[in-house]
Amino acid sequence: MTTIDSINNWFVQNFGEVTLEQAKSWFVYNPEEKLLFNTGLFLGLFLVFYFVYAFLRKTFYLRLTYVILFSLFFYYKSSGIYFLLLLLSSVVDYGLSQIIYREAKVSRKKIYLIISVILNLGLLGYFKYMNFMIVTFNDMFHGNYQLHDIFLPVGISFYTFQSMSYIIEIYREEIKPTKNYIEYLFFVSFFPQLVAGPIVRAKDFLPQIYQKLNLTKQDVNNALFLIIGGLIKKTVISNYISINFVDRVFDTPMNYTSFENLMASYGYAIQIYCDFSGYSDMAIGIALLLGFKLPANFRTPYKSTSITDFWRRWHISLSTWLKDFLYISIGGNREGTFAGFLFPSLFFFGLLLWGISNVNESFIPLAIAFGAIVLFSLTFLLSKKRHQTLVTNFNLFTTMLLGGLWHGAGAQFIVWGALHGLALAVHKMFMEFFPSKKEGNDSGFLWKFFSILITFHFVVFCWIFFRARDFETALQVINNIGQLTFEPENWKTIVLGYKNVFLLMLFGYVWHFLPEVITSKMKFVFDNTPLIGKAIILGFVYWIVYATAVAGSQPFIYFQF
């Protein structure tokens, strides 16, 4: 009895009395308190969920239904009543996938596929791009249409792409449909990766549903290592850098010095990596505890030696999805299509208009527009296989433009995608002229070092557009950085003023650039740590999560996509 009283007293002292209203709030949607992996509420709910899940491990449909119910609750806590949108989308796509699978005529199959794509992209377009289209129309044609009050459901882009991949793979006859709706809904709504990925392919995930659950000791070690690492990345590094430095500078860049704008750009680079890779690590770890293996989503992307290498390491599940379902669909490196030529042409036309409209203030925008058009043209005009390179580069540029638009409805995201598309085309031209410098070839330490340095700084430059609230703010940040002068005393004052922020930035970059041999040894030490040691580490992480919850948890960056 004394022990129970002691535990109760400790709980009250640290967490306070639990009232009926507080308990009710755990299960009711609150837009200000979404259910995130790095909150104490999720940890508590997951422990209860997992306790029951362990008893259901030998069942099949009961276990699937139980996970589906928790997944829908998880999504309800993130987006409120809009969890019904997920259910509606799943019912429609499941029904159309069954029709496509049973249909013998290819022409009819294609019609049903087009219907599914239109419905999915139509829903995504309304919730994510309606106001962007209204603003664009009003600006171009001097319209006065009012903006709609539209709530953006968390992670709608992720589960839309996942659902589309399922129905496209059935159309291509790469997979067979699930035996029933329960199995399909389990795939679409699986909560670890529901709202921010990794985007799971049906052909990789569905076979695991039918396998017997087999959770080994090594799986548990891997899961805990990923979850702990993800929590530290998110709660210790990303949140602190964001709140105490990066957000302030990017909100009002003109109020800060050139050096602060530069360091905020470096800060955002490590912030978004720690935020998104931290979420992915936690998602993969939690899924692993449930007996499911999700694909890796990041492989130390800032170690990339080229922009092509970067996209093999950054958000791997999205870049793979875009390659397989967009790039290849519009022709890939085989043929040109109307869509493949349309979007780059529209972008460069718009870029030219932007340059002309600003010519009275400065010739720089027009020079940038002409320079971009000439540079992109040279990527295929100088090629030995001119026609094939032209087709490839246009399709690649289209893929990156639409990839940028997928991330957000704004000119800054389109520019971000265009910069990456242009860089990929330039890198392909470079590789044609210097084939000995391809990845995998031993080009020497200095070449590798400068390749990583240049690629990293190009990516950081692109992140400025990605982070800025609009295109004009991005230009302000770039203009401020362009006025940087060598003032070591002022820099020292700023560094000391933001000492903790810069230390965490340094910690994040050192962690990221650690050689694989060291990270492997760290993993080996963790795996062989006694149970009491792992319990202490977990206790420390619990404390971090609790401390973060008291300060107010920050949402994951990719939730808005």
TrEMBL record:
Record flagged with keyword Transmembrane helix: yes
Cell location: Cell membrane
Top-level taxon of the source organism: Bacteria
Pfam families associated with the record: MBOAT
Record bears the keyword Transmembrane helix: yes
Transmembrane parts of this sequence: 35-53, 60-76, 82-99, 111-130, 150-169, 181-200, 220-241, 338-357, 363-383, 413-433, 445-466, 494-514, 535-559
Membrane topology: Multi-pass membrane protein
UniProt KW keywords: Acyltransferase, Cell membrane, Membrane, Transferase, Transmembrane, Transmembrane helix
Protein family membership: Belongs to the membrane-bound acyltransferase family.
Protein name: MBOAT family protein
Organism: Flavobacterium azizsancarii
